[in-house]
């Protein structure tokens, strides 16, 4: 009976996820605010139904009350997120908030499943829930800072200095872990500075290109950006280096509209990739695993091969929670969580997860296009590109589309640095959304004032006429009595126009 319930639950989860994903894109076709609210409320209902179904199935399979505790705590946290954003920031994008919650839910479901076999069962899931709570606190603070701090575009070289110093500290002092220098361990928590520096890097590029897009400034900005990438390459943090490189090229092209800069950047990047391949054995190992994971199964290709086996065994509908073997995938909670999700929840669920990420990116681009402030426009574009390219690196690496780069899937993978940096990123986007709403209100106010002034001038023109030029010492214009016109049908100036 338990197996039947678990198998039934996986189909219910897929249906709920598909319905939620459909609503993410259908909301863009809604023309009225009431229709949007109904769709958003429906999303909230689907979110909690999916959560209760998944955790209920895991409880039936494992018969551990701690799963119900994690489910209840997560439900309280997500409900608090939705309510607090509505109370504190009524003008934020509710779609982005809901998408953030569904991604966190998917991550918590799989992390709870994977942590059941650890030495301390469900300890990883509880720590991830703590990371979510801390991230939410920052996510609620950041929007008001973005709205109030109007001088952020003036700290160009402060961003460059802080980001470069943090990356350099990692390259010089961080321990080597799995062939790369990623961060430091403080009080048992791994801190990965590159997760936060990528946000600072976007602000640096936006501030610099907002100041000037002349050739001299572009050269200076490119040199500083190249220094960031070079430090990451020396640390063999290849995923972060790729993100920095792509984000800079996209922002540079949008700011300058010069395809030659993009072509030169791509050629330089291709040359650097060839040089890096011959200099670093770590890169050679990953390329070898990507080319033939089965042939190198006993060595470098083990991770990718296990990932492909998991995706293949999951097929369209998955094996069901606690019915697969995702724990056989190395570092499944972080680098290969997409494979674990696909094995037990199915390819359809995994594709819906990708589409939810795409809908977030579409929303980021929509905000970037409608912002009038160029600095904020570049920031929204840079953060959106950073987010979606990280999703691409994670999914592409585990499916053997590209060599694995060890990147996390935002909001889904386990990790404090990843969760906190992504929450800050989404908080910045929400702040920019509020700024956009402020700009629209200001524009509407200006149009209203212009309309009132035009109506006032029109009334004054009907009620006043210019008098003959007065001698010195007397007013140039004086009031003259109103005169009746010959056409009695003309309405008086004080009368309101007829409404249709």
Which features characterize this protein?
500 residues, mainly alpha, two-stranded antiparallel ribbon
Along the chain, the helix and strand elements come as HHHHHHEEEEHHHHHHHHH
Low-confidence stretches: 476-500
Q: Taking Cα atoms only, what radius of gyration do you get, to the nearest Å? A: 29 Å
Overall mean pLDDT stands at: 85
Most strands sheet: 2 strands, antiparallel
Could you explain how this protein is built, in words?
The protein has 500 residues and is mainly α. 71% of the residues lie in helices and 2% in strands. The chain has 15 helices and 4 strands. The strands form 2 sheets. A two-stranded antiparallel ribbon has the order 1-2. A two-stranded antiparallel ribbon has the order 3-4. The chain starts with a helix and ends in a 37-residue tail after the last helix. Mean pLDDT is 85; it is low at 476-500.
Can I get a quick summary?
The protein has 500 residues and is mainly α. It is built from 15 helices and four strands.
Record the SSE blueprint.
Blueprint: H1 2-26, H2 33-62, H3 65-88, H4 94-114, H5 123-148, H6 156-173, E1 176-177, E2 180-181, E3 184-186, E4 189-191, H7 193-211, H8 215-234, H9 238-256, H10 259-279, H11 281-291, H12 302-314, H13 337-370, H14 374-398, H15 416-463
Helix pairs in contact: 1-2, 1-13, 2-3, 2-4, 3-4, 3-5, 4-5, 4-13, 5-15, 6-7, 6-8, 7-8, 7-9, 7-14, 7-15, 8-9, 9-10, 9-14, 10-11, 12-13, 13-14, 13-15, 14-15
């Amino acid at each position: 009976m338990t197996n039947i319930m678990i198998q039934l639950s996986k189909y219910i989860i897929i249906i709920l996820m598909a319905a939620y994903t459909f609503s993410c894109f259908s909301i863009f076709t809604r023309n009225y605010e009431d229709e949007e609210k109904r769709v958003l409320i429906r999303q909230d209902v689907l979110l909690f139904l999916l959560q209760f179904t998944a955790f209920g199935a895991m409880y039936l399979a494992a018969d551990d009350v701690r799963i119900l505790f994690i489910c209840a705590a997560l439900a309280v946290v997500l409900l608090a997120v939705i309510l607090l954003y509505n109370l504190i920031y009524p003008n934020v994008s509710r779609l982005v908030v809901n998408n953030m919650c569904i991604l966190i839910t998917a991550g918590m479901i799989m992390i709870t499943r994977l942590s059941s076999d650890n030495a301390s069962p469900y300890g990883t899931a509880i720590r991830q829930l703590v990371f979510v709570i801390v991230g939410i606190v920052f996510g609620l603070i950041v929007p008001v800072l973005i709205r109030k701090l109007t001088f952020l575009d003036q700290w160009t070289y402060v961003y460059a200095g802080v980001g470069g110093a943090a990356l350099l500290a990692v390259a010089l002092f961080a321990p080597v872990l799995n062939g790369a220098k990623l961060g430091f361990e403080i009080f048992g928590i791994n801190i990965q500075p590159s997760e936060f520096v990528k946000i600072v890097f976007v602000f640096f590029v936006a501030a610099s290109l907002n100041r000037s897009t002349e050739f001299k400034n572009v050269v200076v900005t490119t040199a500083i950006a190249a220094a960031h990438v070079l430090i990451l390459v020396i640390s063999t943090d290849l995923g972060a280096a790729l993100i920095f490189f792509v984000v800079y090229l996209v922002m540079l092209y949008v700011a300058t509209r010069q395809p030659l800069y993009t072509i030169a950047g791509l050629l330089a990047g291709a040359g650097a990739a060839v040089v890096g391949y011959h200099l670093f054995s770590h890169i050679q190992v990953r390329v070898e695993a990507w080319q033939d994971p089965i042939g190198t199964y006993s060595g470098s290709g083990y991770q990718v091969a296990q990932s492909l086996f998991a995706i293949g065994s999951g097929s369209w509908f998955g094996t069901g929670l606690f019915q697969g073997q995702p724990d056989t995938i190395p570092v499944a909670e972080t680098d290969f969580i997409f494979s674990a999700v696909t094995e037990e929840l199915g390819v359809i669920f995994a594709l819906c997860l990708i589409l939810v990420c795409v809908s977030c990116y579409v929303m980021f681009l929509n905000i970037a296009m409608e912002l009038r402030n160029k600095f904020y426009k570049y920031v929204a574009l840079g953060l959106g590109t950073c987010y979606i390219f990280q999703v691409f690196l994670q999914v592409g690496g585990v499916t053997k589309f590209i060599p694995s780069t060890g990147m996390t899937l935002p909001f889904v993978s386990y990790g404090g640095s990843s969760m906190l940096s992504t929450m800050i990123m989404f908080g910045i986007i929400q702040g920019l959304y509020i700024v956009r709403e402020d700009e629209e209100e200001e524009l509407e106010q200006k149009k209203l004032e212009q309309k009132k002034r035009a109506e006032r001038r029109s009334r004054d023109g009907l009620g006043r006429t210019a008098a003959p030029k007065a001698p010195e010492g007397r007013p140039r214009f004086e009031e003259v009595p109103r005169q009746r016109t010959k056409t009695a049908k003309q309405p008086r100036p004080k009368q309101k126009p007829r409404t249709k």
